[in-house]
Design goal:
Layout (H helix, E strand, L loop, with lengths): L9 E4 L9 H16 L3 E6 L9 H14 L8 E2 L4 H13 L3 E4 L3 H13 L21 E4 L7 E6 L3 E6 L7 E3 L7 H11 L4 E5 L3 H14 L5 E5 L2 E2 L15 H7 L3 H10 L12 H7 L10 E2 L2 H14 L2 H14 L6 H16 L4 H7 L1 H4 L8 H6 L3 H14 L6 H15 L3 H13 L7 H8 L1 H12 L2
The structure holds one RNA strand of 75 nucleotides.
Length: 469
RNA sequence: GGCUCCUUCGUCUAUCGGUUAGGACGCCUGAUUUUCAAUCAGGAAAGACGGGUUCGACUCCCGUAGGGGCUGCCA
């Protein structure tokens, strides 16, 4: 186990391409990425496609897209496990030669019966072929690893779970090579991790017991075990296993809902990892401080409120033009047509808009007062506000504002407060009417800001129209 | 069934034997006398349960309950 040469840290994310990259996988990838970066190591990607029946190229693409969107790029091109089948078979045969593995001629049906019998006896499955020599048997066979004796203890010193002990009696003679000579997951991971020189395996704790089984294999090969860190799975909001209903959605779905990738990353980081009182940790900072010690042992649940809040935080940091492009995309998706002149206004208003938004679509909604078709549709309430005294205010304001030479925020604020003074009332009496006149009842920022954003001509037109309805 | 992991406010979590159990989201109240939001100021809110160990346990040990995982020629 001792190694006097400092090894370069190499981690990997190894999804099976049987579906989209969902939130749990993304978090696992993130932890591996962060750990590698923290130690100036490498982060690799391996597609575990040894299950031919369930693996699809679409899923591979979805995973790659998801990783790219999140910015979790691997340092080398992905390794496709199925392409390494020959290497896997070679290792299995070495194991047979050394007596650590054997050919098992049990049919699947026979194996099932044996397994049930063993289980009933409180013991793991053992093949009747594990000890004998069956050179003359030419029936189809699988290659199985000969499990350790009953009282042999396998200790995994897990960085998250602590030392975990498994007894030999609980380990079965697991299949390494199928009847068709293709490798199983257990063989493939071990061989690939070794060939890829993986030093740290950070993965879901659904693999915790597998770590013991894999360690037996690794020991049989005389290789060095990687350091393990098994992180708890993410649960749904009801504490049950994560499902689609809970948000086990593809990361692409989060993109469509209007979350920023950096927000997803930052949220995911804190789901199961902590460092004192730190709350929102941007990824660049996480690279400096991420450690295995901060990983929690208990499963966590998704909280969309918190996610939204984190997203709001990153939206405020986001570049206005980038945000504008996203608004454009959402508008297209919702089949809302927005004129270029309005996009210009939206961009100018972005610092104000983004401070009020949680998700990207909020930007679209909250800018409706800019792009809504004019003349405005008035809500009943707004219509009421521009009547009576409101009408007087709007008319008066229209006159004053038309004479303004400088259309800037200070000027507008001053004019508005002068107007209030003239009318001998507070802002509370005039702002609602003006707001209604300018927006028809839509939400909008501060009234002076709204005017500045809309521009002199537009404000004039809207005020004039409001006096006529 | 066997083995194994987990359990602090509603949620994410801090605490690594001695704290008024801290922070964040959400929630409630108030403020900004211009909507909605944002912001600011307050507030309510937690150690699953039962035994030990100890001068002293959220923290260590055992058990119970609840939840997760593995037990495949799936990964």
């Amino acid at each position: 186990m001792s190694n006097n040469k400092p090894q370069q840290v190499i981690t990997r994310f190894a999804p099976s391409p049987t579906g989209d990259l969902h939130i749990g996988g993304a978090r696992t990838a993130l932890f591996n990425y962060l750990f590698a970066k923290r130690h100036n190591g490498k982060f690799l990607l391996r597609i575990e496609d040894t299950d031919k029946a369930r693996s699809t190229p679409q899923a591979v693409a979805a995973i790659l897209d998801g990783m790219a969107w999140l910015g979790l790029e691997a340092d080398e091109p992905p390794i496709y496990q199925a392409q390494r089948a020959n290497r896997h078979a070679e290792v299995a045969h070495e194991l047979i030669a050394s007596g650590k593995a054997f050919k098992c001629y049990l049919t699947p049906e026979q194996a099932t019966i044996q397994r049930e019998k063993a289980m009933a006896a409180g013991h793991a499955f053992r093949s009747p072929y594990r000890d004998g020599d069956h050179q003359n048997n030419f029936s189809p066979f699988v290659v199985r690893l000969r499990a350790p004796d009953d009282d042999v203890a396998i200790i995994i010193d897990d960085k998250v779970q602590g030392p975990v002990r498994t007894m030999g009696k609980d380990l079965d003679d697991m299949v390494l090579l199928r009847t068709d000579d293709s490798p199983t997951y257990m063989l493939a991971v071990v061989v690939d991790d070794y060939d890829m020189k993986i030093t740290h395996v950070i993965r879901g704790d659904d693999h915790l017991t597998n770590a013991a089984r894999q360690s037996v294999l690794i020991d049989a090969l005389g290789w060095q075990r990687p350091i393990y860190a098994h992180i708890p799975l993410i649960h749904g909001s009801d504490g049950k296993k994560l499902s689609k209903r809970h948000g086990a959605l593809a990361v692409g779905e989060y993109e469509k809902m209007g979350y920023l990738p950096e927000a997803m990353l930052s949220y995911l980081l804190r789901l199961g990892w902590a460092k004192g009182d730190l709350d929102i940790v941007p990824i660049a900072e996480a690279i400096e401080i991420f450690d295995l010690e901060g990983l929690g042992k208990s499963p966590s649940r998704l909280d969309f409120d918190k996610l939204a809040q984190v997203n709001a935080f990153f939206m405020q940091l986001a570049d206005d033009k980038r945000l504008l492009e996203m608004v454009r995309k959402w508008a297209e998706r919702s089949q809302i047509e927005i004129a270029d002149t309005d996009f210009t206004k939206i961009l100018a208003a972005m610092p104000i808009l983004k401070a009020r938004a949680k998700l990207i679509p909020d930007l679209l909604e909250q800018s409706e007062f800019i792009w809504a078709k004019t003349p405005m549709q008035f809500t009943p309430k707004a219509r009421e506000l521009v009547g009576g005294f409101g009408k007087e205010v709007v008319t008066h304001a229209a006159t004053i504002l038309k004479e303004l030479s400088n259309w800037d925020i200070e000027m507008l604020r001053l004019s508005l407060s002068n107007l209030a003074t003239e009318k001998n009332v507070g802002m509370g009496k005039i702002a609602p009417a003006l707001r209604a006149a300018l927006t028809g009842g839509l939400v909008a920022p501060d009234i002076a800001q709204t005017m500045e954003i809309l521009g002199k001509n537009e404000v004039s037109a809207r005020l004039d129209y409001a006096t006529k309805i």
